[in-house]
Amino acid sequence: MLGLQCGRSSGLLRLALALTWFNKGFPDPSRTHHHGHVLQVGPNLICALGLDFLHLWVYFAKKRETIQKEVKVRGLKNAGYFVIVGFFLVISLVTVSGHSWPSQPPTLVLFAPEIQGLTVRINGVALPGSPGTVISRIHWDWGDGFRGDQWFVASHTYASPGTYTVTVTAFQSDGLSTTKTVTVYLAGGQPPSLTLFNPEIRGLTVTINGVTLPGTPGTTIVRIQWDWGDGIREDRWFAASHTYSRAGTYTVTVTSFQSDGLSTTRTVTVSLKEENKPPVVDFSYSPPTPRVNETIQFTDRSYDPDGSITSWRWEFGDGSTSTLSNPSHSYSRPGTYTVWLYVTDNGGAAARASKTITVGEANRPPYYLFPVYLNLTVGETSSVQLRVIDRDGNIVSERITFEYDPSFISVSADGRVTSLREEQPGEAGTTVGASVNGVPVSNRTVIRVLSTNYRIPYRWVVGNHVAWYFPEEIKGENLSRFVEQYEILRASEIAYEIQSRLLNLQPFNGALQIFEVEIQEEGKFCICGVAGMNPIRLGWTITGNEWKNCFLVPYISPRAPHWGVFFHELGHNFLLASENFHKTLGKAWVYLEAIATAMGLTTMRFLLSGPYSLGAAAVSSMEMLAQQDEQRMLDKFQKWLQAGADFKVLEQVPGPGPDIVDGMWLYYRNQRPFDFAKRFFTPLRPQYYKILEPIINKMRPGDEHTIFAALVSAALGQDLSLTFLQDYHYPLNISFFNEAYHVFLTIICSVE
After folding, report:
1. Residues 6+ apart with CB under 8 A from 477
2. Which of the residues 8, 372, 563, 621 could staple to 516 if both were Cys, CB 3.0 to 4.6 A apart?
3. Could you tell me which of 575, 633, 638 has the C-alpha nearest to residue 603?
4. Among candidates 359, 353, 343, which has minimal Cα distance to 296?
5. Is the alpha carbon torsion for 185, 189, 191, 192 positive or negative?
6. CA–CA separation, 529 vs 377, rounded Å?
7. Is 724 strand, coil or helix?
8. 436-462 confidence digits (pLDDT tens)
9. For residue 312, which of 294, 291, 330, 327 has the smallest C-alpha distance?
């Protein structure tokens, strides 16, 4: 806005400006660009010339073409300059002598409003109409009861959508004013879409499915309200079922509520006939006294007295379900479970029955190869014999057959290992397996061939599900005391139980999961953590940097267990035991690593929030490590987004892709912190393989990205396909996404 008060102007300055402007052409004062020249009118120039002179400029700008044509016709090109300059000179002299112009109201121009949601921004120009005056204020009436003075650019946020008339008045210092109005239309948010499918009617039971999607970007569907027309009202997600007490015609009213308060309502009419006779429910199972991880076969023995049974639903008491008529199931832990069978007949009548099953301790694999780790030099024969032991540490005396790489080592009949050569680049030693009378043992022994046999005493500690094999002391560090101080065995036991509940399985047929800490040397191939086998291998580089190991964390002072590595590698073994995972997400390296980390981070959060009463040392170190790891991954995800979200970065091997994907996973977990992880991992449980099998059979190379997007969406309870396409540049197969998304939602909702 221009509002200036100036004194008398110099006639010489006016003359100079007149010469300059006439030479380049009279500009249009309402524009800032003219014939490629930029006109910048500053306060000093205006004050020098006088606002009365501005009116003359506008006049001659309008008459410029007429004057130029006249000069050209008369051949007075040069004379034209002097005519105009003379005229300006006369006007200047009149102005200097104190000539005054008639008072005029100010000029007020409003530009088109800028509208963002419910916020309106209006720019414009206000110029004094009388010489020697200034614009004293600009008053705004926003049309919704709010009034006030603002200079350009003015903005206002309305409380609700609608059509408003904005009245703007520019006041001049001499009391004159000019008023303009502008109309703004605010659409606001859009209500959700809601589509109801045809009701499924079985007897007096009605099932209605449908689809509802947010209408406003950034919002979510928070609830769906059902009025069944018989006095019953409730909140349910699709598909919703209701059983009426009597036949009749009912109007069902469904309302979808959006997080911004907007809603959409639809109705559907259902007509119910008289209820038929319900089915009679019964079932059997075998074996009668099952054990952990043992397959139990369930057989339906139900019948319908006036029709046939058309659907089954089994609830096994551990959160698992099935819709098969004769399913099989196994339990991952001992206990007493109540199994319910729900059946529905061809008339829609439903009935149920239950039985109690007692599941005993597992028949654990009885044999383990011991010791778990050996360190030899080239050509050396171990002084320690490889032995097969049972769970209690007793040596097995039956015939043992060893399995190994004969180009690297040899193993004698009595279990002594001889190294035949050095480790090659890229080799991290080798392993030995064994069997007893043809029955494989549950683990392998790791052999490292180093420059020195360090002869460090090792310790073996055993829990219910986990065992650790680690040096008692290394480089002055008493690891035995450290393991006890941080309750590493107990924390690992709890972590095993958490991951077992998440995926409802146990790797290696329920055998002890062994962690071993192995010695390695700088300059040779060094490992951090290696999973996919039993034991999980954790490397400790004994030469060089003492922190170069994956047992202690180097960046938390003074020391802390490397919880992230422990639970990440444990997560690998659980995920690889899930056929659902390795046939979907496990096909891509980025998810193979990222989801194992997600499993590890989830484990730490459950350990910290659950009723486990770990000691202060374990809790404080785990809290610090979880916080640092999560923040680091969230930061990598945000930097990747800010850099343009190059999808190719996620597929680089090796590369930052897994950390970025984990940051993405954590971003959505933080939006639903209480159950996102549980929902995410539920479809990876083995009992849902039959449901996922059609999806798995349709997968093509690259579809694992679509699977990940669909699984994250289902865990959040919101379709994120547009976000993955537009913001993350994921190569989604949309039809495949929609199918996978709804299958995942069906599985998740069946558990909830």
Report:
1. 552
2. 372
3. 575
4. 359
5. positive
6. 23
7. helix
8. 888 899 999 999 999 999 999 999 999
9. 327
Rg of the chain, C-alpha, whole Å: 40
Q: Reduced to 3 states, what is the DSSP secondary structure of residue 751? A: helix
d(CA 366, CA 374): 22
Task: Tell me what pLDDT residue 12 has.
Answer: 39
Nearest of 130, 146, 129, 147 to residue 138 by alpha carbon: 147
* CA distances, 89 to each of 86, 552, 562 (Å): 5, 90, 88
- DSSP code of 204? T
Does pLDDT of 663 surpass 80? Answer: yes
Q: Which residues contact 261 (CB under 8 A, 6 or more apart)?
A: none
Residues with Cβ within 8 Å of 578's Cβ and at least 6 positions away in sequence, in order, are 503, 505, 684, 685, 686
Which element (helix H / strand E) includes 601? helix 589-609
Question: For residues 567 and 704, what is the distance between their CA atoms, to the nearest angstrom?
Answer: 24
Residue in the structure block whose two tokens are 């170069």: 548
Sequence-separated (6 or more) residues with CB below 8 Å from residue 56: 88, 91
531 touches 573 (CB < 8 A): yes
- Per DSSP, 725 falls in state I
> What is the separation of C-alpha 377 from the centre of its chain, rounded to a whole number of angstroms?
49
Label the pairing between strands 513-520 and 466-471.
parallel
Report yes or no: 350 and 343 within 8 Å, Cβ to Cβ: yes
CA distance 720 to 711: 10
State the Cα torsion 222-223-224-226 to the nearest 10°. Answer: -160
Contact 56, 91 (CB under 8 A): yes
What does the alpha-carbon distance between residue 194 and residue 210 come to, in Å, rounded to a whole number? 7
- The three-state secondary structure class of 318 is coil
Give 392: exposed, middle or buried? Use CB within 10 Å, 0-12, 13-18, 19+.
exposed
| Six-digit token string for 155 | 């903005």
Most confident by average pLDDT, 75-89, 325-339, 667-681: 667-681
pLDDT, average across residues 400-426 = 94
Helices and strands per DSSP (H, E), number in the chain: 16, 43
* Alpha-carbon gap, residue 332 to 497, rounded angstroms: 10
> Are the C-beta atoms of residues 724 and 706 closer than 8 Å to each other?
no
Q: What gap in Å lies between CA 237 and CA 207, rounded to an integer?
A: 12
Evaluate whether 303 touches 343 at the Cβ level (below 8 Å). no
